[in-house]
Structures are given as C-alpha cells and as structure tokens.
Amino acid sequence: MIQPEEIWTKASRWYKDILASSVRDTPEFPRFISFGKVKAKDTLDNFPLIRDGIEVLINESKDKKGYGYTIEFIQRNDQKIGTQNFPDKIFFETLDDYLKFFRKEKEYEHFIIVVQKLTNDLPQLLPWAKSNPMKVIDNLGKWDDLIKVCKYFLENPRPNIYIREIPLDISTKFIEENTPIIRALLDIIIEEHVNRDENDFRKRFNLKYDEPLIRVRILDPGIAQEFFSGIDDLSIPQSQFNQLDIPCKRVFVLENKINVLNFLTIPSMGDSMAIFGKGFGVGTLKGAAWLANKQIIYWGDIDPHGFQILSQIRGYFPQTRSCMMDLDTFREFEELATTGACTDVTELEHLTPEEHLLFNHLCSLETNNRLEQEKIHHRYVLKKIYETVDV
C-alpha cells in the first residue's frame, strides 16, 4: 500500500516542471500519482495491514486536511471480509493543493512575481527562466538588483569601467558575489557584445580589471629619450601595451623571473627593445598587433617547457626566431644541466625541424634535461645575441 512519504517523493519531482510551465502558461492539473493497486488475493492474507495503511493514507489526504492529494476509492465485495473500499486513484486536484502539501505557496508566489518582472522589463530572459526555473528560485530576493544590473548593461554593453564604478544603487560587492547568475543573464541580453573566448567575468563583459603589467626595456637610448623622456625600463598595463607602436626594428623576449638579470643586463642596441616574457606569461603579448612587423628574438631555457613557450609565441608571431636554444649550446654547457619537469606534450606545431629534434631529445632524457639561461656565461650570451642580430 502506497504511503504519504511515497506520494511526497513522487510528486516532488513535478515541481521543476510546474515552475517551468508557469512562466508562460498555467500548470496542468489534476496530476495523478501512479501506484500499485491492492490485488484481491492480497486482501485475504494482509487485510489488517492494508486497512491500517489505508487509514494512514486517508488521514494525510485533502479529505482530512483540506489540501493535498485526493483519493478516489473503488468498492469490492469479498465473501470473507465483506464490502471494502480500496484506493483507485490518487491525485492533486489543483495547483493550490499541491503547493500547500509541499509548503511552497510563498516560494511559488515569489517566483511568479519574478516572472512578471521579467515579462515587463526583460522579456528576452523568459525562455531562460522557463529552462532554468530552479536558478530563478535559488536567487529569490536578488532579482530587483539582478534586473538593475541587466538593464544597465543593456544601455551600456561595453562599459570600460571597473565593476565597483557601475552607477547603481546596489551593494558595491553585489556583482562580484553573483557573477555566475549575472553571467548567464548577460550572455543572453547583450549576446553580440560578449567576448565568448574569455571566462573572466570582467574581460567577458568589457569591464576594466587589474591588468597584468608587461615590463619592457628600451635598448635604443634615442628611442627612450624621444618617446619616454629617457626612461628605458617600464611596466605597462596589457591593454596600453597593445596600443603601443614603438619604432624599433627588433624585440627580444626573455623567458622568466629567474632570468630577469639577463633582461636587465642585455646591452644597449640600436632599433631594439626587450620584453620580460615571464614564461608561459608570453600569452599577454598576443594582442599586441604592432609586434607583427618586428623581428622577434626569443631566448628561453633549453628544456621541454622552454620549447613549448617558443612554439606558443611563434604561434602569435610566426617570424619569431630562437636564440641559444640549439643543440650546440646545449652540448657546450651540458655539464651544467639539471633535471627539469616532464611534459605530456609530444608535438609542438610551431617549432623548426631542428628545434623539434632537440625538444624530443630533451623529452627522452630521464635526467639532466634542463639547461637554464643563467647557467650560460655572459660572454657566450653576448656573442650569440650579436650573431643573431647580424643575421
């Protein structure tokens, strides 16, 4: 015999569908609960148990409580137990019966209020609300402010200000604390302005953010004097770096923090500048279109990761040449090599055949597969740099 707990479990699964159907329509009722009917042969063996179960079922029904599920009975005659009534149908007759049974009246009322607000202010979000009714529920109490944020971005789809500068009468932390739901909404209402490749909320929706700084050295004193009042060592926000157009011929990119000493001591050189690449941080350079017509010289550690970074930057700027990342240099200082981290990458698209051979060789070594930049003495470095420049 089905019990109220089972009815609760089965009927609770309808809630999401009821909410969804309430977005544009009226939920369909009555709704019936499927259950196993009492068979005639069972009444003879288990009638006292069945009778008690029916009594519990009735006591929790609409007939007794004024709301909840309704029971329709069927009458049976039996020679041994006489005429008895057994449940034939169990159903929720109205939406109100259902909501009261689950104590969802207030929650549903607030849901409908939100739907009405979206209908009036942001009807383009109604399909989303229909597909995601539980997310509407999860954010009850926030929708007035969520709608304010959405309407602001509709009017200013590319704000170019910091989140906390957005001129709304809401908590300054509201957007930061609710980015998942706001992202879902903005992806719909300002779809044509969204930077789909960006996962960071600020970048995705054209807001300012604390950008990474790109450190550069102007190696040509004349360029430093003309454009930077003689300053030759600068750290520039990424977006401003992308807008530069320094009139130099070549750009050196050096790999990571350990080797910043080489970045600082690379000599003055006409028509040249140097960038502190910060290892895999070279990705910050990809938006600098002005580098496309420069001679780019990359010098990184001779290890698998160094060649991964070389391939990465050459993917942005195909003209990139490597410096001191060859077999001769590795052999020259091989006794100074250490054991570096392995990599799962086996193919690098943007290496030359010679570079790929060295990359594969390093990957095959169990030890001593990393020659760091600082292990190469300064005299050799200067010689190779000048040779590269003269080519």
Automatic annotation (TrEMBL):
Annotated InterPro entries: DUF3322, JetD_C
Domain DUF3322 residues, every copy: 4-187
Domain Wadjet protein JetD C-terminal span(s) in chain numbering: 209-383
Domain of life (superkingdom): Archaea
Protein name: Wadjet protein JetD C-terminal domain-containing protein
